Amino acid sequence: MDKKVKIGIGIAAGTVAGFLLYKSVGGALKLAETADNVKVSLLNLPKIHKIDLSGLKIAVDLKVDNPAKGSLTLKIPSIRAYYTPFNSTNRSLIASTAVSNKSYTVNPVSSGKISGIMIEATYIDLLKTAPTIVGDFLAQGTKIIDRIGFDVIAEVNGIPLKVQKL
Fold first, then answer.
1. How far apart are CA 126 and CA 133, in angstroms?
2. pLDDT for 66-99, tens place per residue?
3. What is the model's pTM?
4. pLDDT at residue number 158
5. CB contact set of 116 (below 8 Å; sequence gap of 6+)
6. DSSP of the chain, one letter per residue?
7. Partners of 14 in the beta sheet?
8. Count of CB atoms within 10 A of residue 119's CB?
9. Which domains does the chain have, with CATH numbers?
């Protein structure tokens, strides 16, 4: 093969490889930007769904805002409920969701609703935090509701979403 043909093939192959690398890195950066801009929030107050021998089940509805121009797939592996006492910054786990691989799609530049996510609180978890919650309730009254928080751990298009506090 002629030396000029080999050089031409090498330049063409390098150009194609560079273009593909540019596109893949650009696509990955775009997906990462989408993941950073997604906002997850509570749609309404959590509701007690069921009380049985295993514990308490709380139903949560989430709102997902997608500001990106492309649709996104959201996978929520975990939602955790915490209580933070008035005299401390240490949080106590009250309840969490069962691990799930369920995915939700949110259309471009819109909001989506994810309904009926169940957060399960075992009696053991409730009993661990009950003395603190009752003590704070006696001292502060209904202000304890402001001390309950939720963390969402999710993936957006396969990229981990920052833990969002609701």
1. 10
2. 887 878 888 876 888 888 888 888 888 888 888 7
3. 0.66
4. 78
5. 59, 61
6. --HHHHHHHHHHHHHHHHHHHHHHHHHHHHHHHHHHH-EEEESS--EEEEEETTEEEEEEEEEEEE-SSS-EEEEEEEEEEEE--TT-S--EEEEEEPP---EEEE-TTEEEEEEEEEEEEEHHHHHHHHHHHHHHHHHHGGGGGGGEEEEEEEEETTEEPPPEE-
7. none
8. 21
9. 38-165 (2.60.40.10)
